[in-house]
Write a structure and sequence with these properties.
The protein is built from six helices and 14 strands. With about 375 residues, the protein is of the alpha+beta class. Helix 1 runs antiparallel to helix 4, helix 1 packs parallel to helix 5 and helix 2 packs antiparallel against helix 4.
Length: about 375
């Protein structure tokens, strides 16, 4: 359900079509500056696509794979593999309620013993989502612009308590690994959900004047974990070694993948990020060019047929220019050294040809 409320309104001018067109042209002229800003941001994003993505796949590919015993004593970034031993697993204690309202006695419970636990306690609530919309309407011959506050109410799960637990573990009993929130975990985890759990320090439910469903107010525990397994799995850990312990690093990764799978997965992530930057650059460049050309489009928009054709042509032109700009910028940034060498070679060739042409003329004189 949604409610609306006008929070402000102003008369922007006459609702006469000519007056509205003049205002539209004026507004589009003001947007030209924003268009140039979009172009600049687009160039920044294409730069990020080429140079802003750290290539962990290449960093780790260059590191030698070491057994745990071989890496002992190093004080640098290492890539170590070994069989996992977890002397003291982690577990999470919680209280299970007898009903959805959590009235009465509770039963102490625990999660499975694990190497890693991610805990999320949630309550089902009515959530208020607020957004502001700008609308215009005709009132007595005037065009009135209104700022409308729209409130939507949805029932959804809301996180109330989150935490991550790591058990210290060793590789072949030689190297200790201490996980942290900064650890990049590249292992498939198992997930479980427990209904009706007690959550401390909950505030009263806010119904916002809505009629709640029977599920509102219920709670649950959602957790993901890496179970202990036999036989012991083999992990690869990358990070900075400090007194035979890995607790940080750039990157700090724990995975059960093979070395080739790890390098491939990191490479895929980096390529995805590069494409995201490039696509974002193209979109902003296209929007920026469209905003720059908008005043001209607004001027011819009221001409029958020609206005529609001009819009289509401007859109196509913006598409082509945006593609050429982004692709050209990418090529220049990626292969600037090759372009520089070719430029120097062409200049040298031009100088040579000019000098060669002048020699016969000098001889004749």
């Amino acid at each position: 359900m949604a409610t609306e409320r006008v929070i402000s309104s102003r008369v922007v001018g006459s609702s006469n079509p000519i007056a509205k067109k003049v205002r539209s042209i004026s507004s589009s002229i003001k947007g030209v500056g924003c268009g140039f800003i979009m172009l600049i941001i687009g160039l920044v994003l294409i730069y990020q696509s080429v140079y802003g993505v750290k290539e962990y796949s290449k960093i780790l590919a260059a590191l030698p794979m070491q057994e745990a015993s071989e890496s002992m004593g190093n004080e640098e970034l290492v890539k170590v593999k070994g069989m996992v031993d977890v002397p003291t697993p982690v577990e999470y204690s919680y209280e299970k309620c007898a009903n959805a309202q959590c009235f009465g006695e509770t039963t102490p419970s625990k999660t499975e013993l694990a190497l890693y636990l991610s805990i999320d306690k949630q309550r089902f609530e009515i959530v208020e989502h607020v957004r502001t919309e700008t609308r215009t309407r005709d009132v007595g011959g005037d065009e009135v612009e209104e700022q409308v506050e729209v409130k939507e109410y949805k029932e959804e799960w809301v996180s109330k308590e989150k935490k991550t637990l790591w058990a210290d573990f060793t590789l072949n009993g030689k190297v200790t690994v201490k996980g942290s929130p900064d650890t990049k975990l590249m292992i498939d985890t198992q997930e479980k959900e427990v209904a009706n759990v007690k959550i401390d320090n909950l505030s009263a439910l806010n119904y916002y004047g809505q009629q709640p469903s029977a599920q509102v107010g219920s709670t649950r525990l959602v957790y993901s974990y890496i179970p202990l397994s036999l036989p012991a799995p083999e992990y690869i850990v990358t990070g900075r070694m400090e007194t035979n312990t890995i607790r940080s690093g750039d990157p700090f990764i724990v995975t059960d993948m093979t070395e080739s799978q790890l390098i491939q997965a990191l490479g895929d992530e980096e390529n995805f990020t590069r494409w995201a930057f490039a696509i974002g650059s193209w979109v902003l460049t296209f929007i920026g060019l469209s905003m720059i050309m908008a005043p001209i489009i607004e001027l011819v928009d009221w001409i029958p047929l020609f206005g529609w054709a001009a819009k289509a042509a401007a859109t196509g032109l913006a598409f082509v220019i945006a593609t050429v700009l982004v692709l050209g910028s990418w090529l220049i940034l990626k292969f600037w050294w090759l372009i520089l060498l070719l430029t120097i070679a062409l200049i040298a060739l031009a100088v040579y040809l000019v000098a060669k042409k002048r020699k016969p003329e000098t001889a004749e004189k």
